[in-house]
Amino acid sequence: MLKRFLSYYKPHKKLFILDMLASFIISSVGMVYPIITNLMLNKLIPERQYKLIVIAGLSVLVIYVIRMLLRYFVQYYGHLIGTRMQAQMRMDMFRHLQTLPYKYYDNNETGQILSRITNDLFDVVELAHHGPENLIISGITVIGSFIYLCTISVPLTLIIFACVPFLLLISYKLRKKMREAFKERRVTTAGINAATESSITGIRVTKAFATSKRETEKFEKNNNLFVKASEKSYKAMGQFFSATSFVTDVFNVVIIIAGGLFLYDNKISFGDYSTFIISVNLFISPVTQLISFMEQYQNGLSGFSRFIEIMDEKPEKENEGAKPLKDVKGEIIFKNVHFAYNEDGKEALKGIDLKINAGEKLALVGHSGGGKTTICHLIPNFYPVEKGEITVDDINIKDITFESLRKNIGIVQQDVFLFSGTVRENILYGRLDASEEEMIEAAKRANIHDYVMSLEKGYDTEIGERGVRLSGGQKQRMSIARVFLKNPAILILDEATSALDNTTEILIQEALDELCKGRTTIVVAHRLSTIRTADTIAVIDDGKIAEKGTHTELLAKDGIYKDLYNLQFKHNS
After folding, report:
1. Which of 205, 224, 345, 549 has the fewest Cβ atoms within 10 angstroms?
2. Residue 523 host element (H or E)
3. In sequence order, which ranges of 389-548 are alpha helices (DSSP H)?
4. Under the phi-then-psi rule, with left for phi > 0, alpha for psi from -120 to 50, and beta for the rest, what region is 540?
5. For residue 514, how many other CB atoms are within 10 A of its CB?
């Protein structure tokens, strides 16, 4: 883990070296004051060398001015290094998140992911910036003060430093407890973020069902877990700091007693004794700083470990030798496909054998949970098929690159996702390099152009978060415009009109019929009226194909399809 952490310093090596050099000089300058103090008390003042006293004092002032400038450099450029490292880590995490399979997002909440990419990385960068500086400044000051104190009195110095092992022992004992407590607090913080993200995203549902009390209770539960975890972490931190602070206080007690006895026995002079007191405080300060650094270290370490957890998640992996799909006709074949979302879970598909000829329209119908959407998810290789085979134009999809396969598949779902931004940006998501004319043509074919032109800013109109300023039908037509622009050979319509009213459905269906022309189309539909003209209808029941044929053939079979049809149209008979 340490090696991976240090690798983020590499792009900023020159600036980091300068930062550490400045820190080294700052720590070295800290030793000037006690040395000058000793010189004054033991020589300059007793010998009444007033001119040298003034020169010595002004020299210290000049040195402090230099230290001020160096501290500015360390604060500014040190934080700059940290910010750049944080940006790089965040970019690496974001890129990695783009490569993770669907399964990862099935098992992890958005709010928790956001917590890791924001809160956790902030603590990591604080460690990245302050950690090396604190270690260098404090370490050099401790070593320098030890050497200097030895020049005054070796026995007295050894007595003082005898307290250090006790300090290290206490720090070691309590550090592990504090690290575990802070990690637990991070988990609860992520829980709060997840609950907040979920509640705010679904605020309209909450208001519509008047369930704000329920959402408040859920948030309060996570909030209470955070409080308990914080109490535990601060208790561990309190034990750590109170115990270590007591040991540092003992330093002062030891110097008062031991130094007083040494002075009483004339083993040191009054000037040396005074300098020793100043120097010991100079020693205690960096030791205290190192102790305080432990909290920062724990925060940064737990944050980086959570960063590593995501970075170590295995991305989608293409087969070696996977090739781009070219000149796509659109023939799709399922050969004895079995699939389960979890390794030890129930199979969602149980031996699916299915052939869709290029340019044909296949409709998938059946009860909810039967496996229709799963079939749609497997065609773009969103989930790997472990048993069986799916081919496109006689090529196993495992041997096709993800990008080329998915670029040739257009998907229109019931739950349309639009990005915050303009109408233009969302339609162009279908093909980012499309021209203005191509975008407008796609919008016209999706029956959304006239509406867009009625808006004050036309295609540059902001649609709000997830298209909140648009109706369901308008969102759906924008998603269709995207697919028109993409112009794929294969089209998947996953209950694309089930959430719309009848009038809007007719408009959307016109656009979809236009979209389906010349493409291999898979339609998942609950409204059987929309798929009567399909070339083939497959009834999916409990992960199997129970029936298959045309609308007329399936009605004649007097099976599941006829039951579904009669149930849906009994009020019209």
Report:
1. 345
2. strand 520-524
3. 402-407, 423-427, 436-445, 449-454, 472-486, 502-516
4. beta
5. 13
Strands, sheet with 332-340, edge to edge from the N-terminal-most edge strand? 347-356, 332-340, 387-392, 395-396
Report the distance separating Cα 522 and Cα 356, nearest Å. Answer: 9
> How does pLDDT run along the chain (573 residues), one tens digit per residue?
778 887 888 888 888 889 888 888 887 777 777 778 777 777 887 888 888 888 888 888 888 898 899 888 888 888 888 888 888 888 888 888 888 888 888 888 777 787 778 777 877 877 777 777 777 777 777 787 788 778 888 888 888 777 777 777 777 677 767 777 777 776 787 777 777 766 776 665 565 656 677 778 878 888 888 888 888 888 887 877 777 777 777 777 877 888 888 888 888 887 777 777 777 777 776 776 776 677 677 777 777 888 888 888 898 888 888 899 888 899 999 999 999 988 767 888 999 999 999 999 999 998 888 889 899 999 999 898 889 999 999 999 999 999 899 889 888 887 778 887 888 988 888 888 889 999 999 888 888 898 889 988 999 988 877 777 887 788 888 888 888 888 889 989 887 665 555 656 666 777 777 778 888 999 888 777 778 888 999 999 989 999 999 988 888 888 888 888 888 766 454
What's the number of CA atoms in the CB half-sphere (13 Å) around residue 237?
19
Taking CA 366 as the corner, what is the angle to CA 364 and CA 370, rounded to the nearest 5 degrees?
Answer: 95
**Residue 90: closest CA among 296, 311, 297:** 311
- The first and second tokens of residue 463, run together, are 């649609």
**Cα torsion angle, 141, 145, 148, 150, sign:** negative
> Rounded to an integer, what distance in angstroms lies between the CA atom of residue 508 and that of residue 211?
33
Quote the tokens at residue 164.
């250090």
| HEC readout, 143-193 | HHHHHHHHHHCHHHHHHHHCCHHHHHHHHHHHHHHHHHHHHHHHHHHHHHH
